[in-house]
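Input/output pair, single chain:
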Amino acid sequence: DQKQVAIGGNDNLVTIWDVKDWNRPILVHKLAHRAAIKAMEYCPWAPYLLATGAGSQDRALRFALTS
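Output:
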């Protein structure tokens, strides 16, 4: 719905930002992994559900319910 953006990288952290106002983004959620973030995807039929995956040191999928 273009109201949130998820960002992940080599810092082992996914951050979800509320970007209704691009000039003043608001941090909504942090999702920690034990390795660099390799994949992220919002669910196509439930756009408030985010799945994330990290590298071989983590080997876990994490899910976040966003608003």
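DSSP finds no helices and six strands in the chain. The radius of gyration is 12 Å.
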